[in-house]
């Protein structure tokens, strides 16, 4: 795709989730429209900044665990978002330089910045797919160009499933992605939860902004994404509390976001 046609696809009239989230993690790849709703939401619910920051730290710990303790060498990161510090391939390849990572997002701004995600080690590989979570079979087929889908994969879906309004549909999409991966694969999810009035108000404000809506779910529904998988200890917990190491919770403990890692037996 030419730079001009890519630029034409970038809609700066409405907030977009990748850019809005980039603003919350302190990035620079966002527009006025994203910062405006971002500032409005920070004033309603400052705790969303903690959710964004601690969720990225969770990504680091989960990938470190999978690459280090579980020997996973392949990752499929769906709903990648804009590149930031410690992207999945950087964390994985620090542990295992031969790790392969496929990133998937459907937002043209992420595609425009994808070069920063393609800085693989010489031993490993990274690829970017401009593809849609709503078509899991197409995602798997394209990912097979880079990953060996007969070997375990870490499927990462972080802060993205809330875009799928219908819970059963979201579960079905996760199930279909996992169905294409072999035993020993892991599902990694984090998501904002409807665990405080502030978070619910923030979600309502975001959804009124014209952006593709984002629905925050009860914790039990986040846990339900792992049905049929073996939940890795400590189970589904608030994101700072997942394997924080000797130091204890990584960041403020009471964030309105939960996470988990499940293994396919
Ligand atoms: C809030 S961001 C999360 C980014 C990153 N995973 C993180 O946790 O920092 C949600 C991402 O999901 C992407 N996304 C939303 N709907 C999608 C879809 N149907 N297919 C692929 N990506 C999608 C958005 O473009 C955005 O980059």
TrEMBL record:
Gene3D superfamilies linked to this entry: Vaccinia Virus protein VP39
UniProt xrefs under InterPro entries: SAM-dependent_MTases_sf, SAM_dep_MeTrfase_SAV2177_type
Domain of life: Bacteria
Protein name: S-adenosyl methyltransferase
Organism (species): Streptomyces paradoxus
Source organism phylogeny: Bacteria, Bacillati, Actinomycetota, Actinomycetes, Kitasatosporales
